[in-house]
## 1
Amino acid sequence: MPTLELRVAQELRFLLPPARRSGTFQVTASDTDTIGHVVQAVGIPLTEVGDLLVDGRVASAEERAVSCVLVINPVVRPQRAPTSPPRFLLDVHLGGLARRLRILGLDVAYRPEADDPVLAEQAADQRRVLLTQDRGLLRRRRVTAGALVRGAGSAAQLHDVLDQFAPPLSPWTRCPQCGAALERVSYEAVVARLQPGTRRSYREFSRCTGCDRVYWRGAHSRRLEPMVEQAEEVVRRRLNANGKS
């Protein structure tokens, strides 16, 4: 049975059991295990992994595990997605993040009623990046594109996702509720649905092509403008850091 010495990059050590967080330790694999099995067995989803080095050479997660020194590096940011721009799928615990990403114009599916097998299938079938804080979900066989979202609140989670993927942003072009595209509509087309104060104060409106909600740039939108500006800055910094300005 092969014995591997694992050397885990600092950025990934928080995923390890406390006793292994020095980052260097040995594991024994079975004769049928792949390198990917070894990595996931110690608690690191392959979605979080970049280059795997076996005795100094770049190796594939599908290779059979052999006795070696295995270096596990983090995925390089910005992370590549199955589609350009990336399309996301979020699990039940990330509803606040889903809303913020939609405000920024990103294609985000959010199904709070869906269980893990359904989410894994949807992510694969629709070529979406699965965002979650559940490592077990990311280790499912059907999940090939995903990310473990860092952060305890929606603001920190948004920063992490934008830094991780640096997606192109189109603020105010999607419905925060259902995620469908917004279309510009005339005042006359929606006036019957407006409250008197809104009728007097606004003349520019959008309507959701999915759920038919009507939107206008009122006080709530203005309160969100700092969030949009900060999001654009996060993406700009990530792209500049990678020479893609």
## 2
Amino acid sequence: MSYRFSEFGLEAIDQKPLVSFITVTYKMPHFVRHLLRGLADAMPVFPFEFFLVDNGSEDETVNWVRERFPWVQVIASSRNLGLSAANNLALKQAQGEYIMHLNPDLTIFPGELEKWIAWMQTHPEIGISGPRLLNPDGTDQDSCYRFPRLWIPIYRRTIFGRTPWGKRAVHHYLMKDMDREKEQDVDWVLGAAMCMRHELVKKIGGFDERFFLYFEDTDLCRQAWKNGSRVSYTPAAKFSHYHRRESGTKHVWEVFKNPVTRIHIRSAVKYFLKYRGEDNPRRVNLLIK
């Protein structure tokens, strides 16, 4: 069963969903409320299902969502499984042609979901896409990137990032040179808002659960390129994202005080070990074609 908004409001329909929404939350009840209310206000006209995976928040999220939004399929974990494993719980049940991952801290504007799906339907060669993400003040947010080299995490967390060569490397990684008015292929897109073809995700095998938090989106996009599919940025749809870089540090010694930073570093180590010695799959993909 799926749901669809019509002139009569929300209705349950006996039809396979076109889109399976997946949101993973951990102790973010206010953001979850904002996201779900925003989606209800946007009233998407296509058949959809919505999975909310609560990663052991131990707050009012689960009961509140079940009471206020009965169209949301809540998957309540008794512990924090991490982002990849939580996503995979929902993927096992998802039936949609498209999997759309939405972070709780997104603001959905009416009509944007339809624009995004329409764009995917007219670009069958694209396996994963990311929309235009805006900061709350309306400025563009970094949402797509080049695959990181080993020194990028070092530049971003140490004084070396303030050097001329460090700044150039980070700007290159963040694609500061891109025209955000134009659709274009990219190495990877931020998982905060990511639309994926279900068949591709199944072929890849879902999210790699070695990545508890961070680099799971980088890894998934890399796997898409390795499987002959393209990853692209599209400004056809836009959303506002209240991005909090919880792993951010100003000084090296803060790593020892910030557990999220340590998780980020562990994920980086796993990522670089996993792809040690491999060429950029996007370049390889294009060379083969």
